[in-house]
Design goal:
Blueprint: E1 2-7, H1 11-23, E2 26-32, H2 38-41, E3 46-48, E4 61-64, H3 71-86, E5 94-95, E6 100-101, E7 106-107, E8 112-113, E9 118-119, E10 124-125, E11 130-131, E12 136-137, E13 142-143, E14 148-149, E15 154-155, E16 160-161, E17 166-167, E18 172-173, E19 183-184
Parallel strand pairs: 1-2, 1-4, 2-3, 5-8, 6-9, 7-10, 8-11, 9-12, 10-13, 11-14, 12-15, 13-16, 14-17, 15-18, 17-19
C-alpha cells in the first residue's frame, strides 16, 4: 500500500479522504493545509502548511483535495500541482469504486473522480481535475486541465471544456458545445 499525502483540509478534502480510503490502494500519510483542522486531525495527521512541499520525495504520492472554486483556489491548485510535479511526486488518478468509467476513457494524473460519476466512451479528462459527485460525462467529450466539474453536472456528447474551467452544480451542457468561457454558475444550461 502506497503512502499518500492530501493537500487541503476543508469539506472537499473530507469527501476525497472517503473516496481514497474506499479504493484500498493508499495509506494516508497525513494532510497539508495552511492551518490544522481539528476535526480532520481526529482522523489523519496534520503534516504542516504548504512549506511541507519542500519535504516531498520522488517516492511520495499526493492528491490536491481542495475545491477549484474561484480564481484564488484555482491558481493555488495549479501552483501546488506544478511544485509537486517539479519535485517528482506522483499524482495518481483516484477513482471512486462507486463510479463507472468506460475502458475507452482517458483520465490524466492528479484527477479525482468522486462517488456516483459516470464517464462514457472516448472521454478525455486532463490533469488535476475534480469530477465531483454524480456528474455525468457523455461520449467523445474533452475536459481540459485543472477543471472542476461540480456535483450533478451533465455534459452531453462531443463537448469540449477549456482548461481551468468551472462547471457549477446541476449545470447541463448540451451536445456538441465548445465552452467559450471558463466559469458557469450552478443550474446553468449551456
Amino acid at each position: 500500500m502506497r503512502n499518500l499525502i492530501i493537500f487541503g483540509a476543508g469539506g472537499h478534502a473530507i469527501s476525497c479522504l472517503d473516496v481514497i480510503t474506499s479504493t484500498k490502494k493508499y495509506k494516508i500519510k497525513g494532510y497539508v493545509s495552511k492551518r490544522e483542522n481539528k476535526s480532520l486531525s481526529k482522523t489523519i495527521k496534520w503534516l504542516g502548511n504548504d512549506q511541507y512541499i519542500n519535504k516531498i520525495k520522488k517516492t511520495d504520492y499526493a492528491i490536491i483535495a481542495f475545491a477549484n472554486i474561484g480564481k484564488k483556489n484555482l491558481n493555488n491548485r495549479i501552483k501546488i500541482y506544478n511544485k509537486l510535479k517539479k519535485k517528482g511526486c506522483k499524482l495518481p488518478v483516484i477513482i471512486s469504486r462507486n463510479s463507472y468509467i468506460s475502458k475507452k476513457a482517458k483520465i490524466d494524473d492528479g484527477t479525482i473522480v468522486m462517488n456516483g460519476v459516470i464517464i462514457n466512451a472516448n472521454v478525455k479528462i486532463g490533469k488535476n481535475c475534480i469530477i465531483n459527485t454524480k456528474s455525468l460525462i457523455e461520449h467523445d467529450t474533452t475536459i481540459g486541465d485543472h477543471c472542476h466539474i461540480s456535483t450533478g453536472a451533465i455534459i452531453n456528447g462531443n463537448c469540449k471544456i477549456l482548461s481551468k474551467s468551472f462547471l457549477g452544480s446541476g449545470s447541463i451542457m448540451l451536445n456538441n458545445v465548445i465552452s467559450k468561457k471558463k466559469f458557469f454558475s450552478s443550474g446553468k444550461i449551456i
